[in-house]
């Protein structure tokens, strides 16, 4: 069985007049309900409920419906406002819905109970609210909100109240609620209730404190009798020369009412931390800050400068702290900088080697890093022969670096063989062949005037011209394949021409020798005769022809 109790919890804010009390109340914990009589419009009724920290009544269940019957059941035919209203954005009712589009003051349409007079089949437009008609059955009716009804019902929640006092033995307390009710056995005292203690000469009032909470108090500051509710002291109530006084624990002080306690740091101007100390306080700062000269504000400390070894590699100061960072190629792992594995196949054309802080590209034998792009490799050979760069799909396509020619070994391996540029007379005086290149030198008393020519030293009054050790030729040698074949053909033709020239010279000398010797030798005379005979035959003389 629900317990009936008298009382309505009404909160009276400081500086404002007490709210209008209800004509009758009923409490069904944790809620209380009150009925107000007097003709009011819906908005006016809602304002009276709100002034007492309540709202127009929600009748969501049969329990709430029973409470309304107890409060207003004696006035048959009376009509009272309920907390149902058509939202401003909705112009007309919707008869097919359970609440016909009306909403409770909370803004929802939740309910387990409805009591419409009769089903409505047509919508009604305009500002609409809901009235409760008292009769044999409590029924709901749609009503214009600006109509004046006989009264209204308010609902309050027992969240703010003054608990009953706990006096010592032999001390009686009499409560005078701020309204008349059915029962004096109240579970809580509403705002404005007076508690009288004649034996102690006290009269306390349930009122709103400075922090907005309902509590017992008096108009005058200081403790009351320590035998009742600790004299109202938040800390300790004690007697000094027959007068009750309140005291606070260490680190706190009494407020203006001389009963409440507040921390010594409650109104301290400290920017970060306040530490109660003795009868005063001390300001302190967060880590990474230090107290300024005014002992109130805090300023940032440059941690990186104060502690140079905070970070493994780089330290960046921040407001109130610092950040550790790593050099390029490293990553921060649990406060330490660890080398990042940078080597992946796609980074380098040939081979990749991890080095501290990054990576380095290296090349296969016969190649060197490209000066324009260190990740790439170009053909290079620092020996007299190196393996050729051949297409893996067809070995017939092979390449050699500049200064080398392609040759095939006995094992059918394609090799790049150094070309001796010194055989091509690129240098005026002396030449030194090197793998893939050559160097020009001058004889004593001469200096290089350009990459290939030499000039006497006395023609240069200043410094001699310096040339790189491996100066390239002024004209590029033929390509590897055609150059090799041309050289061989040229050499062969040169040798053959030399042999023919030597033979012609030998014949000419022998002929001249026989002419000067006469008939000293058989061979010479015989040859001469043959030659003379041949001349006579070929001369075409008739005498000679007749003689023959």
Automatic annotation (TrEMBL):
- Bilayer topology term: Single-pass type I membrane protein
Q: Tell where it localizes.
A: Membrane; Secreted
Q: Which UniProt keywords apply?
A: Disulfide bond, EGF-like domain, Glycoprotein, Lectin, Membrane, Phosphoprotein, Proteoglycan, Repeat, Secreted, Signal, Transmembrane, Transmembrane helix
Q: Where is the signal peptide?
A: 1-17
Q: Which residues belong to any copy of the EGF-like domain?
A: 300-338, 418-455
The annotated subunit structure for this chain is: Interacts with ITGAL, ITGAM and ITGB2. Interacts with thrombin/F2; this interaction switches the specificity of thrombin from a procoagulant to an anticoagulant and antifibrinolytic protease. Interacts with ANGP1 and ANGP2; these interactions significantly inhibit the generation of activated PC and TAFIa/CPB2 by the thrombin/thrombomodulin complex. Interacts with PF4; this interaction enhances generation of activated protein C. Interacts with HMGB1; this interaction inhibits HMGB1 inflammatory activity.
What does this protein's UniProt record list under function? Endothelial cell receptor that plays a critical role in regulating several physiological processes including hemostasis, coagulation, fibrinolysis, inflammation, and angiogenesis. Acts as a cofactor for thrombin activation of protein C/PROC on the surface of vascular endothelial cells leading to initiation of the activated protein C anticoagulant pathway. Also accelerates the activation of the plasma carboxypeptidase B2/CPB2, which catalyzes removal of C-terminal basic amino acids from its substrates including kinins or anaphylatoxins leading to fibrinolysis inhibition.
The protein depicted here goes by the name Thrombomodulin
């Amino acid at each position: 069985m629900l317990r009936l109790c008298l009382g309505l919890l009404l909160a009276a804010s400081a500086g404002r007049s007490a709210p209008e009390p209800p004509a009758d109340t009923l409490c069904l914990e944790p809620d209380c309900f009150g009925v107000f009589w007097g003709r009011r419009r819906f908005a006016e009724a809602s304002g009276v409920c709100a002034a007492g920290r309540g709202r127009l009544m929600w009748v969501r269940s049969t329990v709430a419906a029973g409470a309304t019957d107890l409060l207003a059941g004696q006035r048959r035919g009376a009509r009272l406002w309920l907390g149902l209203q058509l939202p401003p954005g909705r112009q007309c009712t919707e008869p097919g819905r359970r609440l016909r589009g009306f909403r409770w003051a909370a803004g929802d349409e939740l309910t387990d109970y409805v009591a419409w007079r009769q089903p409505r089949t047509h919508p009604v437009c305009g500002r609409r609210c809901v009235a409760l008609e008292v009769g044999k059955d409590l029924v709901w009716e749609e009503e214009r909100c600006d109509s004046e009804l006989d009264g209204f019902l308010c609902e309050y929640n027992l969240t703010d109240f003054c608990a009953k006092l706990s006096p010592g033995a032999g001390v009686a307390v009499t409560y005078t609620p701020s309204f008349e009710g059915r029962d004096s056995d109240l579970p809580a005292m509403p705002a404005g209730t007076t508690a009288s203690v004649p034996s102690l000469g006290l009269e306390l009032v349930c009122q709103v404190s400075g922090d907005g909470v309902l509590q017992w108090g008096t108009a005058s500051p200081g403790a009351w009798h320590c035998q009742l509710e600790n004299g109202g002291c938040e800390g300790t109530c004690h007697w000094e020369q027959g007068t009750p006084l309140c005291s606070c624990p260490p680190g706190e002080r009494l407020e203006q009412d001389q009963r409440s306690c507040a921390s010594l740091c409650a109104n301290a101007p400290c920017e970060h931390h306040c530490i109660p100390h003795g009868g005063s306080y001390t300001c302190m700062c967060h880590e990474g800050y230090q107290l300024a000269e005014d002992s109130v504000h805090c300023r940032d400390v440059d941690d990186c400068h104060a502690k140079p070894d905070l970070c493994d590699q780089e330290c960046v100061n921040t407001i109130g702290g610092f950040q550790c960072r790593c050099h390029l190629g490293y990553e921060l792992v649990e406060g330490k900088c660890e080398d990042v594995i940078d080597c992946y196949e796609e980074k380098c054309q040939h081979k990749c080697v991890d080095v501290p802080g990054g990576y380095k590209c290296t090349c296969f034998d016969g190649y060197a890093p490209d000066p324009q792009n260190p990740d790439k490799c170009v053909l290079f050979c620092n020996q007299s022969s190196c393996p050729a760069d051949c297409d893996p799909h067809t070995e017939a396509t092979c390449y050699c670096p500049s200064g080398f020619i392609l040759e095939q070994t006995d094992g059918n391996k394609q090799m790049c063989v150094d070309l001796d540029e010194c055989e091509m007379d690129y240098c005026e005086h002396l030449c030194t062949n090197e793998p893939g290149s050559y160097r020009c030198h001058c004889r004593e008393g001469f200096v290089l005037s350009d990459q290939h020519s030499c000039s006497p030293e006395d023609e240069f009054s200043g410094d001699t011209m310096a040339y790189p050790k491996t100066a390239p030729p002024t004209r590029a040698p033929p390509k590897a394949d055609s150059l090799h074949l041309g050289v061989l053909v040229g050499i062969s033709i040169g040798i053959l021409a030399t042999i023919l020239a030597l033979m012609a010279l030998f014949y000419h000398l022998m002929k001249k020798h026989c002419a000067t010797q006469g008939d000293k030798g058989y061979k010479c005379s015989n040859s001469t005769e043959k030659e003379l005979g041949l001349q006579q035959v070929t001369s075409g003389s008739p005498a000679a022809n007749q003689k023959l």
